[in-house]
Design a protein that fits this description.
By secondary structure, chain A is mainly alpha-helical. Chain A has three helices and no strands. A two-stranded antiparallel sheet of chain B has the order 1-2. Chain B has a two-stranded antiparallel ribbon with strand order 3-4. The chains are: A mainly alpha (61), B mainly alpha (320).
Chain lengths: 61, 320
């Protein structure tokens, strides 16, 4: 049951815009799985802000 | 099937109510066996929490032990009063976060990619140990998965009910049900704890629990509700206040620290829960187990590792 519920949660990856969101999503998943949820959450937020900062810089250029 | 307003009471709702047992049984047994919590208070408070939550939200809404606190408490052999004190401390924190809407601010500023990342990480964290746990009994594991796939949408024999019955049959043939005796009535007793316990447990486990609860029990749960039930959204603030009130009251009657959970909601929904009826069914089962437990059935967990295999058998069924 646990296994199939795990798969059920993973399917929500469908909502993601792959071009922009993949970096914070990956950072969140990897950090959360290998450390804990809190670290994953913080790392994901930081990655999201960095991606936003980088894409704004590119648009200006 | 019985339908009362928006509440449904059917085999599918019963199966759905079992969808989050996997997060409940191992930690509840650990609390009872290692920390010495009173099983009656633990189960009855959990049952009341489920019934009230089901009525308030009119949706399946899992009630689970707070995992960081449970792991710390079990690993450090906390006394019962320390466990209750930690729950009270969490109640204060979540009521404050809810009333001041700090949690709403955090949720509003959390990108969708991070919320999805937390959900996916939870999925991975649930699935990987499941595979590890069925190693060595692959045949039973594969049979369980096939049963779930076959019976998941069945109205007459929903998958979780079939698996739980299978667990009971296995327990019977292993002799784990022998010697339980007749039923005896027990009532939850009032519990007290000191301010020192509240402070100590908050520093030792509560602080680490806050971010996990914020992400898993509040932000990811609210996001999952909006996906499963788009016409019945629940705000992060409401979830936080609900957890605050639960944890402020229940420790005084033997309740463990409780929260909601994204994994539990996915489990309940996957196995058929669609209304608050699932919570009410689960609550009634837990209250009956708490009040009418066979004498000595839980104290035997502490005395005999073989008895502990009984809930583990349920856990095994759930984990595969």
């Amino acid at each position: 049951m646990l296994f199939l519920v795990g798969l059920e949660l993973v399917k929500f990856v469908r909502d993601i815009k792959w071009s922009l969101d993949i970096i914070p999503l990956s950072v969140t998943v990897i950090s959360a799985v290998f450390t804990n949820m809190a670290v994953g959450f913080a790392a994901g937020i930081i990655a999201d802000r960095l991606v936003a900062f980088y894409s704004r810089g590119r648009q200006r250029a | 099937m019985v339908k009362i307003k928006s509440f449904e009471f059917s085999l599918r709702e019963l199966a759905g109510s079992m969808g989050d047992f996997g997060t409940l049984f191992p930690l509840a047994v650990g609390y009872i066996a290692v920390c010495g919590l009173d099983p009656c208070g633990l189960l009855v408070m959990m049952g009341i929490a489920n019934i009230v939550t089901g009525i308030v939200y009119r949706l399946p809404m899992p009630i689970e032990p707070m995992k960081v606190l449970a792991v710390v408490a079990i690993a450090a052999h906390w006394t019962p009063s320390m466990v209750y004190a930690s729950g009270f401390a969490m109640g204060v924190v979540w009521l404050l976060f809810g009333l001041t809407n700090v949690i709403g601010f955090i949720a509003k500023n959390t990108p969708l990619s991070v919320v999805r990342g937390i959900q996916i990480a939870l999925g991975v964290l649930l699935a990987v140990p499941a595979v590890t746990m069925i190693q060595g009994s692959w045949a039973l594991g594969i049979i369980s998965i096939l049963l779930i796939i076959l019976f998941r949408d069945s109205r007459w024999a929903p998958a979780a009910v079939v698996l739980m019955l299978m667990g009971l049959v296995i327990m019977y043939f292993r002799g784990d049900l022998a010697g339980l005796g007749g039923l005896g009535l027990t009532l939850p007793m009032p519990m007290l704890f000191s301010a020192k316990d509240i402070f100590t447990t908050f520093v030792d486990g509560g602080l680490a629990q806050i971010p996990l609860t914020a992400t898993n029990a509040v932000i990811a749960t609210a996001a999952l509700i909006s996906q499963y039930f788009p016409d019945k959204p629940v705000t992060e603030r409401k979830l936080a206040i609900n957890m605050g009130v639960m944890n402020l009251a229940f420790p005084f009657f033997g309740g463990m620290p409780l929260c909601h959970g994204c994994g539990g909601l996915a489990g309940q929904y996957y196995f058929g829960a669609r209304t608050g009826g699932a919570n009410i069914i689960e609550g009634v089962i837990e209250i009956c187990l708490g009040l009418l437990r066979p004498p000595g059935s839980y104290s035997s967990f502490r005395a005999s590792p073989r008895r502990s295999s009984a809930p583990c058998c349920f856990w095994w069924a759930w984990s595969s």
